[in-house]
């Protein structure tokens, strides 16, 4: 036996529900201990070998110590799961092909509400290459240009007439929006992203509290808007419904801009659970 040799004794008892193992740590005259293993109790005891084992140890000139480990405690608590919005935020981050205009690199899965189900059947560039898509729908330099939006504020045409009409929103209606609170467009909550005919960039998370830049609201006080069907654009089919704010119906006052934030500040809209 060399200096690093350890002698192990088979399990000798049970400690609660945990099997206890007595480990003999062999120490040679030069003081090199072997590795031990945790056991059931926290005290150390000198063991006097007997019988053949005593003869073997005596011949080797070693001392024997039995180490007993503490009783097993309750299993550690499972790690706390991250908030749901954190997972969603991670899914709407990054830049697709290194270009923020093309939307987030990581999209939510279709089962990851609230945004995932809305992306069903959505094709980011509608089958066009990145370059062809940006050439068709982006105007100006990459870092200072903007999207070419459709005519008629995005409303579809039917029989040569813009498909929109004055509509009174009722208290309790749920509306949503992909974008900040400084915009003037909303939609009845739940339309798919493809039906909204929006550019992929609108999915980028800009605020961790609003993953995928998606926000849901509830009408707190009735007010009038334009509402109608959405024209195809951005290589998307459109066909959903959109709501456009207009100072003709609701005057924000001199120097004020009518947008979602104005409606929130004045109690016309309230944030709603997603």
Q: How would you describe this structure to a colleague?
A:
By secondary structure, the chain is an alpha+beta fold. The protein folds into 2 domains: 61 residues, no CATH class; 188 residues, no CATH class. The chain is built from 5 helices and 17 strands. The protein has a 7-stranded antiparallel beta sheet with strand order 11-15-16-13-12-14-17. The protein has a 4-stranded antiparallel beta sheet with strand order 1-4-6-5, with no helix packed on it. The N terminus is likely disordered. One of its GO terms (molecular function) is NADP+ nucleosidase activity. Keywords: Membrane, Transmembrane, Transmembrane helix. It holds the Pfam family TNT. InterPro entries: Fungal_surface_NADase, TNT.
Layout of secondary structure:
Elements: E1 7-8, E2 13-15, E3 18-20, E4 23-27, E5 44-46, H1 51-60, E6 63-67, H2 84-91, H3 130-137, E7 138-139, E8 146-147, E9 157-158, E10 161-162, E11 164-169, E12 174-178, E13 185-188, H4 193-196, E14 214-219, E15 223-229, E16 241-244, H5 260-265, E17 269-271
Antiparallel strand pairs: 1-4, 2-3, 4-6, 5-6, 7-8, 9-10, 11-15, 12-13, 12-14, 13-16, 14-17, 15-16
Short characterization:
By secondary structure, this protein is of the alpha+beta class.
How many structural domains does the protein architecture include? 2
The portion of residues forming beta strands comes to 15-25%
Oligomer: single chain
Q: Total number of β-strand segments? A: 17
Number of helices: 5
Shape: globular
Largest beta-sheet details? 7 strands, antiparallel
Query: What distance separates the N and C termini?
Result: 70 Å
Numbering strands along the chain, what is their spatial order in the largest sheet? 11-15-16-13-12-14-17
Instruction: List the secondary-structure elements in sequence, H or E.
Output: EEEEEHEHHEEEEEEEHEEEHE
The low-confidence parts are 1-30, 32-47, 52-72
Global mean pLDDT: 81
Helix content: 10-25%
Radius of gyration: 35 Å
Q: What is the structural class?
A: alpha+beta
């Amino acid at each position: 036996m060399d200096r690093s040799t350890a002698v192990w004794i088979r399990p000798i008892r049970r400690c609660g529900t945990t099997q206890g193992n007595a480990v003999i740590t062999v120490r040679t005259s030069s003081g090199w201990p072997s590795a031990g293993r945790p056991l059931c109790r926290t005290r150390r005891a000198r063991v006097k070998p007997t019988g053949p084992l005593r003869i073997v140890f005596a011949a080797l000139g070693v001392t024997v110590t039995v180490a007993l480990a503490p009783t097993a405690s309750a299993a550690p608590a499972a790690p706390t799961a991250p908030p749901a919005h954190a997972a969603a935020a991670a899914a709407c981050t990054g830049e697709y092909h290194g270009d923020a205009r093309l939307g987030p690199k990581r999209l939510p899965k279709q089962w990851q509400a609230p945004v995932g189900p809305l992306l069903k059947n959505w094709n980011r560039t509608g089958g066009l290459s990145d370059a062809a898509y940006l050439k068709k729908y982006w105007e100006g330099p990459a870092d200072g240009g903007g999207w070419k939006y459709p005519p008629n504020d995005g409303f579809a045409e039917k029989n040569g007439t813009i498909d929109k009409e004055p509509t009174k929103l009722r208290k309790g209606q749920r509306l949503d929006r992909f974008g900040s609170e400084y915009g003037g467009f909303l939609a009845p909550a739940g339309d798919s992203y493809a039906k909204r005919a929006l550019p992929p960039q609108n999915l980028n998370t800009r605020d961790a509290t609003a993953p995928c830049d998606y926000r849901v609201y509830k009408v707190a006080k009735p007010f009038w808007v334009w509402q109608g069907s959405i024209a195809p654009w951005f290589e998307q089919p459109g066909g959903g419904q959109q709501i456009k704010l207009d100072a003709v119906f609701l005057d924000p006052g001199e120097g004020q801009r009518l947008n979602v934030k104005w409606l929130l500040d004045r109690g016309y809209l309230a944030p709603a659970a997603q």
